[in-house]
Amino acid sequence: MSQRVSGGCKCGLVRYEGARLDVPMFRCHCLDCQKLTGSGHSEMMALERDTFSIGADCRTYEMLGGSGQPTFSGFCPMCGSQLTRHSTRMSDRVYVHAASLDDPGLYSPAKSLWAESAQPWDAASIIAET
Length: 130
What we know:
By secondary structure, the chain is mainly β. The protein contains one helix and ten strands; from the N terminus they run βββαβββββββ. The strands form two sheets. Strands 6-7-8-9-4-3-10 form a seven-stranded mixed sheet.
């Protein structure tokens, strides 16, 4: 049975829950994640799309991802917390930002994506492939 997780935004307006997808958790250094989070990277955990639910107040920003396919970023309209990312390319999953989890300790990154885009001041956070 998949592990159920829940989380939400800073102000509590938007809540979500779903079952964890058994794929590696990761740290993404792409320029989109840098801009969306206002930091050097984002920390992402995949949830099964079919089990995922999120409050109706969540707002979505659509953009083109590095693949050229549409990607969507979910956030709270009140406090601005980044909550989700998903794409048409990987339609079976929704990624949640690890810090938005009720228990962020469940997050354990296994790898870094887009490490070549990491800012020099964030290079120490790159997870080396083993």
